[in-house]
Queue: 2 jobs
Job 1
Amino acid sequence: MDLNNNRLFQTKNYIDGQWCESAGKLAVTDPATGALLAEIADGGAEDAERAVAAAHAAFPAWSGKTAAERAAVLKRWYRLIADNREDLARLLTLEQGKPLAEALGEIDYGASYIEWYAEECRRAYGQTIPTHNPAMRLHTIRQPVGVVTCITPWNFPNAMITRKAAPALAAGCTVVIKPAAETPLSALALCALAEEAGLPAGTLNVVAGSDSAAIGRVLTQDARVAKFTFTGSTQVGKLLMAQCAGTVKKMSMELGGNAPFIVFDDADIDVAVTACMATKMRNAGQTCVSTNRIYVHESVHDEFVDKLRAQMQALRPGHGLEQGTTLGPLIFRRAVDRVHGMVEEAVANGARLLLGGDFLPNGENYYAPTLLTEVRDDMRIAREEIFGPLAVVLKFREEGDVIRRANDTPFGLAAYVMSENIRRANRVVEALEYGMVACNAGVFSTTVAPFGGIKESGIGREGGVEGMAEFYETKYCCYGI
Ligand code: NAP
């Protein structure tokens, strides 16, 4: 691997401060070419158990440090990530496929959680409560929950880890992470830098492996684990929630979405198209907040579609490391076939194909930017999360009707509203049943704001003060005097 800092290329799991080999090997490949990038230690349930034991043993010392002491280690980690951002981005593009500029953006975004929570942990104040009884004094203190286990997906192999690990570590928790089998190299590179930053052995552990169900059972069922946090599909999230029930763990779930993107007749169409491109085509459409259903008012439909098609046509598919690439591959062939199947089904049911609709010659995991109009709400393409470079346009006439249609889904992660009318914008933002709503913007996720969904899109928040609260227990202390 061609990196400036070869220490970032790690092929063993990181448990209790040691790089640990396994009998089996897990192949990591470049989704753009299929080339083998690495064969890493294929961790399993036993490794996960050792990691949980290590995190449990490390907890008293780490949680016993002052917030300032923990912050100092985290800030060193943050600076090392910033110093190695080019290498980390390169590694990320190679194993995940996104264009290098997007990978650099993810590294900076991921690192920002570490910096911000290093600062925030110094403000974990409790309260003094006005007493109900003159002979008693009432306080609350905030204490770290304990051992935290995390399972993360392949679409953001760096940031989905830091978004969980940074607030957990800052709060005084110790952490075990299982990254997706497709993208373990970014996770292991983060461990190498955490080690260099001086994070004590056992505080942060990574167990990658092909048997995610076996590792997952340990992370969700071990009684020493106080909290489990997951980012991934709703289907797997439900299974893991059930597994956590046996030991009544605290849980955070960042799950799938089905984001509506509503373009009103009073929208600035150029702003709307730019926002739509950003939410729809970033990471080849493989983000949980990717627009799924684009509702356009009938009076501006043709103008919006023409402009969107022009921008989609201008995308440059290619290897993420090639200069000028703006569209990478999907993560694996299964994903490409799924998207293609949805397109074929929609066209067979009356949707109109305006662009794409086919595989690309760049490699077996590439799919053409695809634009469909005349889509109906009952089509699978409008009901399921797409996760590909496929834009799906539906028409509407009335505000009330589009709100009802936008909310008619079990998902509730992100929604988008395009309108220059402040009254309407406020009305619609409030009426949408989603955890996050962006108005006249396509990219909204930031360290300082709470990210998360409602309904079947999740439980809990990541980012901001809410993201930190997930890793504390509030203890009520009552003193008789
Ligand atoms: P996924 O299949 O649910 O996988 C996510 C993680 O769960 C991976 O680490 C996977 O490991 C692991 N996993 C799968 N089956 C498991 C099991 N039975 N037990 C334990 N772990 C298991 O999701 P994905 O397709 O990789 O990721 C895309 C999904 O994530 C989308 O639905 C997207 O919307 C969602 N997402 C949500 C957010 C958010 O913040 N709400 C952010 C990003 C992504 P292996 O890959 O090793 O099997």
Job 2
Amino acid sequence: MEAVKNFEIARLFYEMASLLEVQNENTFRVRAYQRGAQALETLAEDVATVAARGELTRLAGIGKDLASAIDEYLRTGAIARLDTLRGGYPPSFLTLLEIRGLGPKTAKALYDTVGVDSVPKLEELCRTKAIIGHAGVREKTCENILKAIERWKVGQARTVLSTARGIARQVVEVLRAHGGVDRIEVAGSLRRMRETVKDIDILVTSREPARVIRTFTTMPSVVDVIAKGDTKASIRHQDGLAIDLRVVPPESFGAALQYFTGSKDHNVRTREMAQRMGLTISEYGVFEVKTGRRVAGATEEDVYAAIGLAWIPPELRENGGEIEAARDGRLPALLTEGDIRGDLHAHTDWSDGQLPLERLVEAAQARGYDYIIVSDHSKSTTIANGLTADALRAQIAKIRALQPRFRIRILAGSECDILADGTLDFPDDVLGELDVCLGAVHMRYKQDRESMTRRIVRGLGNPWVNILVHPTGRRLGSRDPYDVDMDAVFAAAKAHGKAVEINCSPERLDLNDVHARRAAELGIPIAVSTDTHHLSELANLDLGIAMARRAWIGPTQVVNTRPLADVLRWARPGR
Ligand code: DGT
Ligand code: CA
């Protein structure tokens, strides 16, 4: 059906959410409008029909407020609240919120005082320093804003994996909801689970391409239709990135999926192999050069089989040895979510987490884990409300007291600072009371290469430290890795039998795939941990698993696939 009104209203709700964000409204209200928009764009029935039945609030994501806004729009063609919110702000103003460190309050004040209404304008006024003295902006703030703008420009080019995946899932749901879609699959770098993606590639089989293309190009989240043809279209999404959609016939689905999954380097190799066999591969299928006869195309398995290869997991398709391995039957058994028995990095409200300790443990138990660590920050990370030795001892006592109530084993841990000189933030007798100890660099992370390397290597030498967490400290789009010699770090981890972490937090993904592969090849145990601060973050595990898979890592190389007794024996030998 033609859900014109659904899309129209969803678009207004998205705008409302952005405007509320500018007003510094609480996040729940902002999220409520975003969720409402998402509910409307995936609603297959006409929203007017639902409204006529008085059943708007029965829709998941639509509460009383949003329902009355929908009613109002259906009656009057406008939402008064939205018009008020819009008052004065040009659309480009909203992009200012994407500049890290520039909060809604400052943005608004700068708009009111010096007319900053877009990122280019902000940049200009920072360069000429005309901005200094307004809205509390000082020389230093000005420099920081310019740096943030530079990062924003780079970040504009690529989107972090978890964000892109969230957008892709929503778009897939919208396309499914409005009919005409037979099979649908995300391809490109997103399917390969690269840590960032330039754009989203979606592949569909359909008997009604025109219908699918129309839904795709009119979705509420579309800000620009870049290209539109009979079987393909390209749009710019409100969150900044482009999305390509291609509709292919069922008999070509496998070939198209293989082609558009890439990577380009992987495809170049598969095409060369085909050529040597007298075949050609295109997005339409595999064909014999001489006769033009089609030999494969419906499934990816067939496409790979036609050139003598086993099916290759998308995460490996980077021309990093996977073609040879597939040819020789040597593809590794990669880590899966089902292999993971526990989480070895998580925070509670004792430091900077949101969760009471019991809630964290309950949630981990509900996931079916055998063990969960409690690893709050140590005292030197004051901004994260790090624990003193006394507080840590009290926490350990609480963990021991809680234990009988749970099936899951609660591991007493700490994310203990490796201080600037490489010593640990707690003395050895305190560390000795823990079940597992994480070592981390937080403060003074801008040390020179030599000092930082010495610091981490020394930290790994402490006998109580078990896992070096977020080993490079990078944050995608906002902070570079520490200047550190990773070879030396890995050599130390190897020498002392320590593990290194793949941190699953969406902006960290640290170690990255390249470093993780090197560490695993050296025989260093890998911990795939979520660094959970909030209930929903336990589910970030799959991002770290994706990095591990891209690093060719299998279950036997991962610490937290091991049974509890093995982990304890490794972490606290002789206890
Ligand atoms: P990105 O940059 O994150 O979007 O990475 P991809 O891999 O998604 O790259 P994209 O979107 O430019 O292209 C999607 C896939 O299409 C790519 O992985 C492989 C295929 N492809 C694109 N251009 C070429 C090409 O020139 N030759 C071959 N063989 N394949 C290509
Ligand atoms: Ca792409």
